[in-house]
Structure formats: structure tokens, C-alpha cells
């Protein structure tokens, strides 16, 4: 208070001095020397008056960075570094308002905001409810729906108190691609072992059955007609089944013997043009249509052109089989850039679709929803797409039919 009083007295004195100088200057306006003297005297008064009107002091936090002590500068740098790391962490971080029960879920970094942004999670509120339902200190594998299909993530929740406010911190780490890669590798190893062992057993069976048929032809004149006929039928059945099994196992062996991808720039427009020329006439002959769209036309992807084309052909063949009984079959193949600049290729049809209880298994080797299916087509699609650095999902369609989504 005393300081404010002194500043007020000093300001009043300066104002009075300036007024006196202004009056004197009016009397001696024709004397340049006196006017110059008055101006020189007025400048200190005006500067003092300005200092009196300024705020008493500025907060310490507004001090220039150069005035910070080394310890405070180190703390500030550490805080800014930690904030940048959390903001760009590949794990989605969320704050749950209350430690017990539900509570509002707020994204804390860029990964969390991208997950909840339009075009990624199908229902952002569902992710919030999913995280709020997790117990503190728990780790669980959770699933949620995205525009690319069902994805899995590891959710970890911890409880903490910040300035007396009880809250929970939730971390969501997407693991779908890693789980798929591990599962695919495990299936490849299993298929490789099974096909190797089965082929080792089938090869001598097929060989011996052919040898037995040849021996039977040499001695058939010495055997009764009925015995000769029965032996011929049995040996022929063994030979045919052995040959069929060899062909069957060879088709599965292809899952574990796909050559390594040779990536190169692939123009999506040219790829779709080849697929349209190959597949569209079949759909037109059935009274339907097949549409291929690329936006923008300059889209490219780094992939093995042969493997990417084979993966799409497998999906197009599945779509043709799924729409075999549809009066006006329709196929829609589109390519565009999704959020984050990733290439998104969709293959959609208006067929009977995939039953919900089978959707989680359709990419599994040996699994097929068809009576005569071998469970190779979609397993090969997933293998080829993964080999080229992409992911493939079955996404529930808005209406009738099925929709598969590839992202690179």
C-alpha cells in the first residue's frame, strides 16, 4: 500500500510539472532555445509518469527464458519433452474421470483422438464404455468395431489421484496386425508339417496301389472272376483316393510355399483395368454388373503386382460364388485414400453374405462355409496381403451381401 501511495504522489508531481512546462512553453513559444530546454525537461517527467502507470510487477512465469535458473530450465525442458512423447506415443491414452464405476472418458494424445475420429471407430462411445468397464490394475484383450472390421487391442487401466481428483488412466494398444501375423505364421508352420507328413505316407500308398494293379493284371487269369473283380475295384479305389489326397494336400502346401513378395510401384488404375477385363464379362453374362472405381486416378501402392492381383482375384471369385443365386448380381470394387494416407481397397457384393457366427473364422485355413470348399481361398488372400505389408478384414455391410477391406 505504501508503494502505491508513493507512486500516486510521484505521478501527480509529474502531471503538475508537465502542465507548468506547457504553460511556460506557451509564453515563450517564439524562443527556440527555451522551447528546446522545456522539451528536454519534459522527457524525464513523461518517462517517470509512464513508469508509474505500468503494472507493479509481472508474474515470475512470464520472465524471459534467459532469466530462468538452470534447474527451472531443466525442469521445463523435461516437461516439454515428456508432453511431446506422450502426444506422439503409438499407444492410445485415455483419462477416465472417476476411479470407481463409469465416468467420462477423455482422449489424452494423438493416437486416442485418431481412434475416436470419424471414419475409424464405428462407435466411439462404445470404446469409452468398454474402457470405463475395465477394473483398475487390469489387463485385458478387448475388441471393437472399426470401418475396417473388428480389431483387437490390449487395454491396461491404472488408478491415480491428481491434485485430489481420483481418476483412472487407460492405455489401449492395437495388436490386431501382430496377432494376425503370429497366427498366420503358426498356421504356415502347421500346414508345412502336416503336408510333409501326409505326403510321406501317401506317396508309398499311391505307388504300391499302382504296383498292385499291375500285378493283378498279370495274374487275373489265374483268379476266380469274382475275386478278380473285387481286387480290381479295391485297388482302383485305393489308387484314386491316394491321387485325390495328393492333389488335396498339394493345394494346402501352396500356403507355405508362396515366394517372397517383390514390391514395386503398382498403378491401381491399371490393376483394376486388368481385373475388369478378366472378370466383368462373367458378371454381365449373368445379368449383373461389375464396377471398378479408383479415386484419384493416380493412386499407387508398393506391392508385388502378381500377388496383389491374385489376392483380388480370389476375393472376386468368392463374390461370384456368393451371388450365384442372386437375380441381379452386383460387384463393387473401389480404391481410395483413407485417413492417414493409407490405401483402402474394398470388394463388396450383394450376395448372401457371411453369417455372424462364421465371420471370425473365414480367414482360417481348412475352414470353409461351402460344402465343397477347402478353406484355402481367403487364407491365401490374407497370406498374400500380409506378405505385402497390408491387412485384410471382413467388414459388415450396411445392407445385403459381403464386404472385404484391404488397407496398405
From TrEMBL:
Residues 1-25 form the signal peptide. Its EC number is 2.7.13.3. It catalyses: ATP + protein L-histidine = ADP + protein N-phospho-L-histidine. It comes from the Bacteria. One of its GO terms (biological process) is phosphorelay signal transduction system. PANTHER family: C4-DICARBOXYLATE TRANSPORT SENSOR PROTEIN DCTB, SENSOR HISTIDINE KINASE. This is histidine kinase. It comes from Pseudoduganella ginsengisoli.
